[in-house]
Every structure is written in C-alpha cells, then in structure tokens.
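Suppose you are handed only these lines of text.
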Amino acid sequence: MFTHLPTPQLDPILSLSVAYKNDPRSEKVDLGIGVYKNSAGETPIMRAISQAQDIVVATQQTKSYVGLAGCEEFNQSMVNLVLGGTSVLDRVSAVQTPGASGALRMLGDLIKVAQPNTTVWISNPSYVNHKPVMEAAGLKVNYYRYFSPQTKQVDKGMMLEDLAKAGQNDVVLLHGCCHNPTGADIDFDAWQQITALAQKNGFTPFVDVAYQGFGDGLDADAKGLRYMADNVDEMLITTSCSKNFGLYRERTGAAIVLGQSTVDANNAKGKLLTLARSTYTMPPDHGAALVKTILQNQELTEVWKQELSEMQQRLLSLRKSLCDELRNAHNTSQFDFIESHKGMFTVLGFSQSQMSQLREEYGIYGVGDGRINIAGLTEKDIPYVAEAIIKVS
Ligand code: LMR
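From them, the structure of the protein bound to (2S)-2-hydroxybutanedioic acid can be written out as follows.
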C-alpha cells in the first residue's frame, strides 16, 4: 500500500525548527517559525493566560464533550475581537477550530461545497500553508501580484490590476494585518479599493487575521477588514490565538462566516459543523477555555492587552535596533525597509542560496523564501545577525 509513496517534501517552516534544535552551534539564532521570544530568548506563557489557567483548573468540573462548534462563548468573543464595532454581527456565525490552519481548511471545504468551481486568489508571496490547504480542499489557486522586490513594499497598482480580474467564481484571500511572509501591509485605501472591486465584480473576500495586535494594535489591525465586512454581502475570516495569546501548541482558532442574512450565516455554520464531524469532530477545548476566561473578564482582558502591547512595542524596537546596527556599524541604509514592516516578519530580499548561506555559515535560520522572524531575535543577537546579513548580501 505504501511502497509507491514518494519521499515526502519537508515543510519549509516546521522542518527548520527541527534542524535548528539539532544544530550544535552556540551562536545559532532561530528566525524561522513565527514564535515570539522575549529578551531572554524564551516564549513565556502570557500573564493573563497563567491567571486564566489557574481559574480554569480551579473551576472546571468535567472533561466531557463540549460540542461540534467548540465553546460558543469563545466563538462570540472572537467575533467581537475581530468584528467589534461593525454593523454585521447579526449575520455572522463562527466555529472554534484547531488553530487558524484548521480554520483555513474548514472554510476551504465550505467553499468547495458551496461553490465547487471556485478559484482562490492568494498574494504572491503568501503564507506557505495557504496554497496547500486550499488545494487539499479541492480548490484551484491563482496568484495576485503583491510585493515589489525593489521597494520591499506592496505594489498596490499591480495588486489592484490583478484583483480587477477576479469575478463571481473567485475568492480573494487577504492578510488582515502583518502580512506573512513579507511584513508589508496594504493601506486603508487599498482595503477600500478591494472592497469596491468585490462589490462591483462579485468575488468573495476571505481574510486571514493571525496576528491581530502585533502590527499597530488590536483595533487598528482590524480596521481594514472591519470596513470590508461593513460593505460586502459575504465574507470569510480565519483567526488565530497562537500568536496574540501565545497559545501556539493549544491549536486555538476560529472560522467566521459573514452571510447575506442570519439564515445564510447559520446554514454555513451548520455545514461547517458537519464538515468538522467528518474531520476531527470537535476542536480541543483548553486554549479556547483560557481565551474565553480572559475575554469575559474585564480585569484579565486588561492584563492581556497590556502584555500584547508590550510585545508589539518590543517588535518595533527590535526592528529599529536592527536597522540602527546596519546603518551605524555597517554604514548602509539598504535595509531601512525592515523598520516599515509590520508584525513578526520581514522579507529580506535574499535568494534561497543566500538563506542557506545564513544558515550554514552563521547558524541563522530563516525561511527559504527570504523571510526572517523579527520576534525570534533577542537584543544580544542583533550585532551578530546584522553582520551576517551584510556578509551574505
Ligand atoms: C509561521 O508562518 O511561521 C507560523 O504561522 C507557523 C505555521 O503554522 O506555519
């Protein structure tokens, strides 16, 4: 049965973590997988999560099943976090999923059932899992131009030109904020223009928001997608608690559907539940129980927001320190774009072979597409990483 299977391709991100762990060099730096590290190089359990964990342990009475949709209070809390302040809350439904990749797959499967001939347009480049997940759901994938390798910013003109070709059988996948891998986000004007194209040409927007709070803050990071939700008939959203609640291994996310009516949104949810039943039945509870505990408690919500904001500020200061080091110690402003990028990631503009050189010669692990995770840096790594960047460039 398995003899004809080819040797599997390694995942371009997850395989790096294994290679990094096995690297004996003491100077190695892990800038691969998108995980936040503090100045000590640790990924701590967030303060609000620790407190919520104590509450859950002290109050939880049973480990019996929750339900196909997971925890409904969690689902409602996630809808409020992402779509708070919009006028669409009465035609929205949500299900808890195993992480945002689980949400991507659930919504991919939903699209396949609702409109089998759909093509999903993704940015070039995009999160490495977007294409495989959409294709695994049986959908066609097309690319829209997004990033200018020259300016290291979004090329809005090219992007809009490509998206103008998307029509009724198309879904356009956008990054809500903190674009993965480039770090280059679209501005509010682009959100408005894409919304206008969706209205005019009939494509369905699909927003993946996995880093809310890491860019400009919780509300600012959702501004574009909230505008879009307020102005389109239908929309799909995936969201994650991996990064902003630091719940990576707990696989905590949600799939949100905006329908033309309450009935449509509920029918879509019903379909998502049968899809979940035939896949994993129901999502794991622990992470959602913690997030629900935080978001339903004002005091804990404040503790969480404070720490998230500290993390966001630290990312800005790491970006600045890396640029300062490159400018002051190496006399180059070639990498100033790093400071303009948002969230965890930046694409350096390096080729696969330059990224290999960083890894092989310096023990600096970034993704083959040129992505480095700024949130994986510690302050003490900056001179070493800056020097390696210069040597390799
Ligand atoms: C990343 O892009 O590094 C993260 O989203 C981890 C993942 O699931 O790939």
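What can we learn from it? The domain at 12-46+301-392 is CATH 3.90.1150.10 (Aspartate Aminotransferase, domain 1). Residues 13, 33-34, 101, 127, 129, 180 surround (2S)-2-hydroxybutanedioic acid (CB under 6 Å).
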